[in-house]
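## tool: complex_structure
## caller: assistant
## args:
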Amino acid sequence: DAGVIQSPRHEVTEMGQEVTLRCKPISGHDYLFWYRQTMMRGLELLIYFNNNVPIDDSGMPEDRFSAKMPNASFSTLKIQPSEPRDSAVYFCASSLTGPQGRDGYTFGSGTRLTVV
Amino acid sequence: AQKVTQAQTEISVVEKEDVTLDCVYETRDTTYYLFWYKQPPSGELVFLIRRNSFDEQNEISGRYSWNFQKSTSSFNFTITASQVVDSAVYFCALSSPSGYALNFGKGTSLLVTP
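## result:
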């Protein structure tokens, strides 16, 4: 399996622009998570889905952030409008059964977002 | 609420030394799961181990070992005979059936020098 695939790997955008990050989970995994990593706040959960349904979006910072999972093989995280404080590495992860599974959660390589 | 504390921000050792990374957790759940992840300089997050709250047996995998003690709410990670390739940031994380997401500690940056 190719693992969790994220695109783009790097994104540089100007403040105010819309940014869309993409994720393809491992086939058959029922859980998908979006995390953000910054030096100040570490790894924070933004939102997670189970069977394409958003379960917990309490970590989404504000209305500028939205996430969708239109099918089992694709998810997007959109920021509109983007701000410099959104600069971070955004990770997508997927899991077959959640924490009960012995294989943990598989993370993608991340998208490094820079908003100037 | 769940919380993971990794009090050691940075550790520096010389190759072949043993090093222990500490992890202390807080949770009200009786069933929970503990994880360790490695983040090398390349940036990806690599799964190392998962432990459930009912299994306190220590685990060894090559040079890596993990000590889980419910009495002290700790899940420590030891690298024996460290190598330069072990240089990375190591994260401890906690999850439970009441909230499937991983709650991460702040991480410990390990530098192994030749």
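## assistant note: The mean pLDDT of chain B is 94. Residues 15 and 83 of chain B are 5 Å apart (CA to CA). Handing back to user.
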